[in-house]
Amino acid sequence: MIIGTVLTNSHLARAKVLAESIKKYNPDVKVIVSLVERHLNPEYSEFKHFDEVVLAKDTWQGNMDFDQILFKYDAWEACCFAKAALFDYIFTKYTQEDHVLFLDSDTEVFSPLDDLSKRFKRSSVLLTPQNIYKGNEYDNFKYGVYNAGMIGATRTPDGLGFVKWWKKRLERHSYFAEYDTLFAEQKWLNLVPTLFDSVEVVKHPGYNIASWNFKERKVTRSDSGKYSVNGEPLYVFHFHAIKNLEKENDWSKEFPQIKSLARKYAEKLDSMGRHSLEHIPWSYNFFTNGTPIDRDSRLVYRNNLLLEKKHPYPFFMKNEDFAWYKENPGSESDPLPGSLPESSPDSSFERRSPKRRTIRARKRLRSRRLNKKLKPSLLSRKRRTPFQLVPLKRSVKTRIVKGRIPVFYLSRMSRTEKMHLAKLFVRFIDHHMTRFERRIQMSGGRDV
């Protein structure tokens, strides 16, 4: 079995606690971490409980550019999007492993997962419901029936089919939408039992305990220190919104054992350097010039397919550009001074100077003005030779003046016309080389 998780640098302490708990009870299980950042933090390779740390962009295999997708999402939504890509990456790379379990980075394992191994053998997909008893049905309409903090998939036709289907949906629809229509990656899971076979809904109370189901699950602790839930072993606890769990409130008095678990978990986070890590900014939250990306800019790019095709690398743009598109959503004109680069930001994330962009724009503007002023009829009408006539789009003809041709004509040529022009240049060179060789023979090898 392989267990994977997705996180940003600010959640590194949580991932360390998770990996440590996994190795404590399941030493043979591999832990794979997908990091949604531009660069790897050296701390990851130094932590012994991580078997592999991979950048999320390296797990992605799809038609759309990874940066283009991530520009549409904030950090939380981006981590939700990267879950399906991590499943696909693990199944592709680790061909000997048939069972893959995903756990959110803010979960902790409290027992050996032998029970899950048995469930994997008879299922293609494992889902954990938000609630296993009646009473909270309205929340299921809002947040989804199943929780995406714990999902399992096996190397079966239905398991692999689920991963590909989920990955394709999250490519464009892994965000928190208005009117509760989408809840990032989670509400897509509502359709899985209908679309795929051998899907098991894990109704065991010891899996994926979180604040939304505290009231239906009673946590107790034995004299030996083992925890149980409704009389069953505790396997995975989900410490969602740990800062709220640390506070003293009414529920802390109602659930003393859960309060004790939250306090111990917070102490582990502190020992892993939580306070120094949680303030690290997300590297995908900035344009290439270092300016923070506004939420409105992401929304404009997400909802404008024309803008997506016109500017496939939005990290080179500015908030002002997206503000213009927001005010002119149907306009075919472009507020930018010129076309954007034809390649995405490289690994060094170089920042492009606004001055360079302005200079390029001025050069393009001068060339456009030159195109309007110069016409074929204004070119020289000197003696015509076979290599001087170049056909351009039917009736337009241009003569090579002194072996040169204006660049703006080359830009208007078709591929066939350019090939014909190349052949004419070859004839031109052969003609003059022949004359040059004759002059050498007549001169007897003297300097010509």
Structure summary, number of beta strands: 14
Quaternary state of the chains: single chain
Mean pLDDT comes to 82
Low-confidence stretches: 346-354, 373-404
User: Which of globular, elongated, flat, extended, rod-shaped describes the shape?
Assistant: elongated
Provide the β-strand percentage band: 5-15%
Enumerate the strands of the largest sheet in spatial order, edge to edge or round the barrel.
3-2-1-4-7-6-8
Structural classification: alpha/beta
What is the terminal separation in angstroms?
A: 81 Å
Described by strand count, sense and barrel closure, the largest sheet is: 7 strands, mixed
Radius of gyration: 31 Å
Describe this structure in words.
There is one protein chain. With 448 residues, the chain is α/β, with parallel strands linked by helices. 42% of the residues lie in helices and 13% in strands. It is built from 19 helices and 14 strands. The protein has helices at residues 12-25, 42-46, 56-59, 66-70, 75-93, 114-122, 137-143, 157-170, 192-195, 242-246, 250-254, 256-271, 274-277, 295-302, 305-310, 319-327, 354-373, 407-412, 415-443; strands spanning 2-7, 30-35, 52-55, 99-103, 107-109, 125-129, 146-154, 199-201, 219-221, 227-229, 232-233, 236-238, 389-392, 396-399. The strands form 4 sheets. A 7-stranded mixed sheet has the order 3-2-1-4-7-6-8, with helices on both faces. It has a 3-stranded antiparallel sheet with strand order 9-10-11, with no helix packed on it. Strands 5-12 form a two-stranded antiparallel ribbon. A hairpin with a 5-residue loop joins strand 9 and strand 10. Helix 1 packs across helix 12, helix 5 (75-93) packs antiparallel against helix 8 and helix 14 (295-302) packs across helix 16 (319-327). The longest helix is centred in the C-terminal third of the chain and has 29 residues, at 415-443.
